[in-house]
Specification:
Strand content: 15-25%
Distance between the termini: 29 Å
CATH superfamily: Glycerol-3-phosphate (1)-acyltransferase
CATH class: Alpha Beta
Organism: Paraburkholderia xenovorans (strain LB400)
Structural class: alpha/beta
Radius of gyration: 18 Å
InterPro entries: Plipid/glycerol_acylTrfase
GO biological process, one term: phosphatidic acid biosynthetic process
Enzyme class: transferase
Pathway: Lipid metabolism
CATH architecture: 3-Layer(aba) Sandwich
CATH topology: Glycerol-3-phosphate (1)-acyltransferase
Number of helices: 7
Largest sheet: 7 strands, mixed
Number of strands: 7
Number of domains: 1
Oligomer: single chain
Amino acid sequence: MRSTFTKWLFIVYMLGSGTLYSIIILLLFPFVGRAGRYWLAKQWCRALVFVMRWLPGVSCSIDGLEHLPDGPAIILCRHESTWETLAFLALIPRRISFVFKEDLLRIPFFGWVLRGLDMVSLNRGSARQAHQAVTKESAERLAKGDVVVIFPEGTRVRHDAPLRMTSGGVRLACATGVPAVPVVLNAGKVWPTKGWPDRPGHIRVVVGPPFSPREMTQQELSHAVHEWMKNELQRL
C-alpha cells in the first residue's frame, strides 16, 4: 500500500514540477543563451534525482567518470528506462546532447524545452538520410564541446535482455572521428522499461574506457564496445 502511494506521489511530483519548471524555463529562454538554458534544465534534473531518494527510494551512483575524455566524445549507453534520460543531466559533469526521436519535440512543455536545449533529433525515415542528418548535427554539437549520448540498441530494453547493438552509434564515432565511450547501468532492475519505479533500489552506472575510431576499423570498434558492455552488464 505504501509503495503504491509513494509511487503515485512521485509521479504527481515529477509531472507537476516538470510542467511548472518547463513553463519557467520557457519564459526565461529568450533571455539566456545556450549554456543558460542547459543550466536551468540541469537544476530540475538535480532536484528530481534528490526527490527520487525520498519518495520511491531510488538512489544512484556513477563509476568511471575519469574515463571521459577532456575533448569531444560519443557515449554509447544501454537504455533500460526513462531514468537515464532524466538523471544523466544531473550526474554527468560535461554538457551532454542526447540523440532522441523527433517525435519527442511534439510533447507539450517537455518537448518545447527539449527543442530549446539544442540537442540532436532523429527522424526515423530513410536509414541513410537519418544517419547523414544525425552525423551532421552531432558533429556540430561535438564542435561546441558537447558529449553526444546515443542508445545503440535503438530503444529501451529489459536489464536481462541480450545486448543487441545497431551499427549507428559506432558508425557515428567513425564518421566524426571522436572516441566512443561505452556505458552500462542497471536502471531496469529498479525502474521498469515501461512504467514507474514502485520499490526502493540503487541504480549503478558504469562508464567504460574510450575507444578511438582512429586506431581501429569500424568492425573492430563495434566488437570492442560490444564485448566491454556485455561483460560489464553481467557484473551489474
